[in-house]
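Please produce the structure of this protein holding pyridoxal-5'-phosphate.
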Amino acid sequence: MFADIHHLVSKKIVDIPKSAIHEMTRLSKTVDDVAFLSWAKPTSGTPEHIKQAAEQAIREDKTGGYSETAGLPVLREEIAKKMKQKNSINADPQEIIVTVGAIEGLSSAVMAVVDPGDEVLIPVPGYSTHIRQVVLASGKPVLVPTLEEEGFRLDFNRLEDSITPKTKAILYSSPNNPTGAVYSEEELRALAEIAQKNDLVVITDEAYEYFVFDGGRHLSIASIDGMQDRTISCFTFTKTYAMTGWRVGYLHASQEWIPQITKTHIPLSICAPVVSQYAALAALTGSQECVDDFRRHYQKTRDLMCRRLDRMPEIFSYQKPKGAYLMFPRIELKGEQDSMTFAKKLLMDVHVSTTPGVAFKGEGHVRMSFCVPETTIDTAFDRMEEYFS
Ligand SMILES: Cc1ncc(COP(=O)(O)O)c(C=O)c1O
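Below is the modeled complex.
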């Protein structure tokens, strides 16, 4: 028998609900031959030249110690170059901290900004980890619904109405997990205006920055005039270079912020894994062809998933994703709006794994990932079509 430790655990932690994503992953392992549409992780392997650079760094004995807390200077220089070119942010290497994926960057940023009781606006449906990061910092996540019929666009009336004297920050991902929405320049300028008017910090999660389709563009809000000093921008190598397990990302903030964020970064990680920092260096300095290949593949699989969804209008309706590699169809089937029950049914009855929308504060939906081979999408939809026919 296990001892009852419930009363010993932090109330804040006890009150965090069990992750629906992890529950589905656990269940998926009990079923054979699953067509997985539930993971937001790239299914392609890390490109060869990145792995080789890591091997070489190990052989040259460069990876046994800590790096500078902020990361290898040479890596921060390359990141600064990338940020100027890709993000139009005039970044100095001193304004960059290499982090353990985007997740540690986001946690460090949130902890550096939030005092107990501070409110953080989070557009939803949104990435549940953001909500938990605010809770862990003893802040209060304030969930602001987006406009689904307009492609999950930001709802500025609701955002402004949600601001109170306790509002400290806005935290969002664009391209968005789970909806695939990409906030336009017009939206981000409006958001910047709200942040400036109300003296708010903006914390961004730009994990999917390279995956924008149909010739669209990803814009970093920190590149908008007057925003650099109030924005903490978080990025990662995870999605761009299929480096999920390497755990390396980075954040950018102005020089006034960096010493403060360093105080949260050190207790969380000391530094990012050094071997992964060498791999990240190779990713930035090597050929970028792999990134274009991934983007082309995701646009193809997005289009395939849309075509397959178009054949099932009584079951799902959807907003076409402009970016990321995720979509968030609404369940149209009568009486099936409990997304956990629906997702479990799909898993158990037809071996198709999706993620229930409730995990993203988007009940009545399921999230489907298209970062998978086309055959996986076809298998999943063949099974669902037959099941619902
Ligand atoms: C929006 C978003 N941010 C961050 C992450 C995780 O990034 P990392 O692996 O760099 O910590 C994910 C992973 O799914 C994500 O969807």
